[in-house]
Design a protein that fits this description.
By secondary structure, the chain is an all-alpha fold. It has helices at about 5-30, 35-60, 65-80, 85-110, 120-145, 155-170, 180-195, 205-215, 215-225, 230-240, 240-255, 265-280, 285-300, 305-325. The chain has two domains: about 5-150 and about 285-325, no CATH class; about 155-285, no CATH class. Helix 5 runs antiparallel to helix 13. The two termini are about 50 Å apart.
Length: about 350
């Protein structure tokens, strides 16, 4: 097989590895393939991408093939992820970093290495390659639906904090019972307000909601609601269905949470806290997203060293297969060396 044909084939393999890597990342970021299996597959594709990049630079000498290969793997994201300013900047930087990696690997291959050490030479250019790849991954994350997250306190964090603060909450809010349902709360609220506000049983404003729970008299109404027999409660709801439904609607609006009636107050409080966190963080959502992009980039850069080792080993393995298949031949060349003598 002629050398030029081999170089064309290796160039195509590199380009195809780049295309499939970008396409799988599109599935990962845009089609909800976010799980452990897809994460491992993404890692395999990126390792394969890096290995073919190293072999491509190591074996293909004509710069026209190298330039064309870099152009193709750099512009694929435009067609796969769409035209985006941030992505265009990332693509330009990725293209430049590919060339920096090429120059470093070429210098190691042609000037400094007297003994052929593919694994060592492969790793020389991978630092720039992975830097560009990390930048692209961070920007793809930024423009993908995955970055459109909501600030939300994890439930197990909330439960842990709530359990620690429960004695304080009980002392400050005697009318709050984490196990009571929304229906029980609304019934207790109706009973309480029917005593102190007989002409209207409207829920207080949001600012008065916790004042409402602080009232010991409401705690007594809650006990009545919880201890009343089911028939009494059903009759109460039937007779005052309109008022209770209006109160449920207002209760939902106050908390910013859809209330059905069976939810426990602890769950409602969790949703209310997250709603407040979301409201407070909304003006800063853009900055928070950028912060996460930076965190993704730094997290990927922390994997730089293991990535280079994995890719170096995998590239060496592929190189050995090419040697065994007769595609690559190892030969010795005489080189001239400058020395200084007295």
């Amino acid at each position: 097989m002629r050398k030029s044909i081999k170089e064309i084939i290796l160039s195509l393999v590199f380009v195809l590895a780049g295309f499939f890597s970008w396409y799988f990342l599109y599935l990962f970021f845009y089609n909800g393939f976010v799980n452990l299996r897809s994460l491992l597959l993404a890692a395999i594709f990126l390792i394969l991408f890096g290995a073919t990049y190293s072999i491509f630079l190591f074996l293909v000498k004509p710069k026209k093939f190298i330039f064309l290969g870099f152009v193709l793997v750099s512009i694929f994201p435009i067609f796969i992820f769409g035209n985006n300013l941030y992505l265009l900047i990332g693509i330009a930087l990725f293209f430049i970093l590919l060339f920096f990696g090429f120059l470093l690997l070429k210098r190691e291959r042609d000037l400094f290495s007297l003994k052929l050490r593919p694994m060592w030479i492969f790793r020389r250019g991978l630092g720039y390659f992975f830097l560009g790849l990390s930048l692209m991954l961070a920007l793809i994350f930024y423009v993908s639906p995955l970055s459109e997250f909501k600030m939300e306190i994890p439930r197990f964090w909330f439960d842990g904090i709530f359990d620690k603060l429960q004695p304080l909450i009980s002392s400050q809010l005697p009318g709050f019972d984490q196990e009571m349902t929304a229906d029980e709360f609304l019934t207790a609220q109706y009973l309480f307000l029917s005593k102190v506000q007989p002409k209207g049983q409207k829920i207080p404003e949001s600012a008065d909601f916790f004042e409402f729970l602080r009232n010991p008299a409401f705690a007594e109404s809650l006990k009545i609601a919880q201890n009343s027999n089911q028939k009494y409660l059903e009759n109460l709801i039937v007779r005052n269905k309109k008022v209770l439904e209006e109160n449920k609607k207002e209760f939902s609006e106050i908390l910013g949470v859809g209330i059905e009636g069976e939810e426990k107050m602890k769950d409602i409080l969790y949703y209310w806290v997250n709603n407040k966190v979301l409201t407070i963080s909304k003006p800063y959502q853009e900055y928070i997203s950028l912060g996460f992009v930076l965190a993704v980039f730094l997290a990927l850069q922390a994997l730089n060293l293991p990535y280079k080792w994995f890719v170096g080993f995998f590239g060496w393995f592929l190189f050995k297969l090419l040697v065994l298949a007769g595609v690559v031949k190892i030969q010795k060349e005489m080189v001239e060396k400058e020395t200084a003598t007295l």
